[in-house]
Amino acid sequence: MFTGIVEEAGQVVSFQLGAEAWKLIISATKAGADVAVGDSIAVNGCCLTAVAAAGQRLQFDVLEETRRLTNFSALQPGSLVNLERSLRFDGKVGGHFVTGHIDGLGTIEALEPRGKDFYLKVRAPAGTGRYVVHKGSIAIDGISLTVADVAGETLAVWLIPHTIEVTNLREKRPGDLVNLEFDMLGKYVEKLLALRTEQFS
Description:
Elements: E1 8-17, E2 22-27, E3 40-43, E4 46-54, E5 57-62, H1 64-69, E6 80-85, E7 104-114, E8 117-123, E9 137-140, E10 143-151, E11 154-159, H2 161-166, E12 177-182, H3 184-199
Antiparallel strand pairs: 1-2, 1-6, 2-5, 3-4, 3-6, 4-5, 7-8, 7-12, 8-11, 9-10, 9-12, 10-11
C-alpha cells in the first residue's frame, strides 16, 4: 500500500530481458534508503518487489505482462521514474490510498505552465471515465493528484511547481504514456452494485 506521495525521481540504469524475467535496475538516493530484499517499491505507481538492494542501486524483476500493460515498455537508461517506499503504519498519509496495481495507460494531451502552476490533461482508456470524478483522487505515474475536470475519458489536474521538480513529469511531453490507478472506492462500489443488480434481476 502506498500514498502517492513520490519520494524522488530515480533514474533507470538498465532494463534488459534476462533468462527468467526483465531486469530493472534503478539508481535511487532517498527511496533506496533502508530497502531490503522483498520490500515493495512503487515505480511509476506500479508495485514492484526489490530483489536486490545495494547502496543507491535497486533491482527488480518485471513480468512481461507488467511491462506490456504499463509505460515500462518505454523505459531506457536515463529515464526518470517516480519512486515511493510502501506505507508504514507509523507514517503520514499525505495523499490517498494507492495499491500499486495499474488500471491502464493514459496519454498526455497537454502539459503546460499556466501562470505559476502547471496544467496536465490526460486521456484515459476507453470506458474508464466512469471511475473519475471531479475533485476525486487519481494516481498518475504513482503521483496522488486531485481531478480538477473530467469530460468523458479525459481528465485534467493542476500541478504545483514542486510536483514538477521532484517527479518524472519534468521530462514528459504530449503523447507520452502515463500509468493510471483509479480510486479503489469507485471500483468496489461498481462491483457491489453489479452484484446487487444480478441478485435482484
